[in-house]
Amino acid sequence: MSRAPGAGDAIGIGAVHCLLPDVRTPVEELPEFAALAHEEAEFVRGSGIATVGVLEDRTSGDLAAEAVRGLLDGRDGTAPGGRPDTLMLVGPRAPDVLLGSDACRVQAEAKLDGAFAFTVDGLGCTGSSAAWALGRDLLLADPGRQGVVIAHGSRPTGLDRVRFPVTVIGDGAYAMTLVRGGRPVLRSHRMETDGTFHDLFRVDYKQVPYYEWREECQSPDRYRFELAMHSRVRLGRMVDEVLAEAGVDKKGVAATLMQNVTSSAYQFYEALLGLPIHPVCNEHLTRYGHLGAMDVVLNLDRLLAGGELAPGDLVLVLNNSPVAAWAVTLWEV
Fold it and tell me: Domain Beta-ketoacyl-[acyl-carrier-protein] synthase III C-terminal: where (predicted)?
């Protein structure tokens, strides 16, 4: 959706276009479900995910390019930001090509002639938060830059969608623009990584054919306990830093959003932060499953479209991923 521009040169969102499937599959009807071990099947049943959206026979690059075209087709060429001159593709779970450029392929299919395209990669779900922070910085650093478009397509790495012990993957894509005078405005942001978790999850893609690719967690206990402890400490501190920079406290936050992984994750972070996670997140989790880096954009877009927020309200967006990347962003409506 497009939104009314804000005043001044503050960097905010110009427009968002989300691509979601009409067809959804119940998780217990996924092809791999019957072959899951008991613990894995119970995890899926208790995840809070009822169905996942499915867009068969399309790659993450296909979906990202379609999302950008949908975004640009709906734009007025005279709107703030005009024609974006920077394209950031948030890296998918697996690239469509090696040596080639998925980002430049999206640029070509979206006919963003003259733009500079590149990929923000290696951050998992947190890639979208890193991209909008980097896009804000690029626009602030170069007054001649017109606007930034960010895009991502969510597809599973191989054929399986169950990512034990994390979530169940659904299909979707988004594109969004950052422009001067856009709304909501990006008020404050923090992001961090811990490189020691770089190989906690991996896919052996060199020794086996594509249809046998499986996401492997090197240590479920390390994911559940050690990484969770890092997230508890870091996100708690980062939220305090972001709010302090904006000069507000938690009572001044109108809504808190995060990525959609499991319903228990919402409970974990609500208890940690003392902030309720907005129900729109759980609605999307139940219906679409985990959409990777798309989750926070979809949640934010639909929250804003719902009309419950007023100009000046603050929305806190948390984001983290199993590669040990964390981000916290404060948006002002």
Answer: 243-331
Has this prediction a pTM greater than 0.70?
A: yes
Q: Please list the alpha-helical segments (H only) found in the chain.
A: 38-45, 60-73, 102-110, 127-141, 220-221, 228-246, 263-273, 279-288, 295-305
Domains and CATH numbers, the chain: 11-182 (3.40.47.10), 187-332 (3.40.47.10)
- The series of mean pLDDT values per 10 residues for the chain, 333 residues long, is 57 96 94 94 97 92 96 66 87 89 95 94 94 97 94 93 93 96 96 94 88 87 90 94 96 97 94 95 97 97 96 97 95 98
Phi, psi of 244 (to 5 degrees): -65, -40
Strand 116-120 to strand 148-154: parallel, antiparallel, or no bridges (unpaired)? unpaired
Q: Output the DSSP codes for 174-213.
A: EEEEEEET-SSEEEEEEEEE-GGGTTSEEE--SSS-GGG-
Helix or strand (DSSP H, E) at 14: strand 11-19
Q: What phi and psi values does residue 165 have, to the nearest 5 degrees?
A: -100, 40
User: Do the beta carbons of residue 260 and residue 290 sit within 8 Å?
Assistant: yes
Residues 6 or more apart whose CB falls under 8 angstroms from that of 309 comprise 254, 255, 303, 315, 333
Determine the 3-state secondary structure of 333 from DSSP.
coil
Contact predicate 332/312, CB 8 Å: yes
Burial (CB count within 10 angstroms: exposed 0-12, middle 13-18, buried 19+), residue 268: middle
What's the CA gap between 162 and 104, in Å, rounded?
A: 30
The confidence score (pLDDT) of residue 121 equals 94
- Cβ atoms of 151 and 103 closer than 8 Å: no
CA 319 to chain centre: 8
- What dihedral do alpha carbons 297, 299, 303, 304 form, nearest 10°? 0
The C-alpha atoms of residue 68 and residue 75 are separated, in whole angstroms, by: 11
Neighbours of 201 (CB within 10 A): 19
Give 32's contacts (C-beta < 8 A, 6+ positions apart): 159, 160, 161, 162
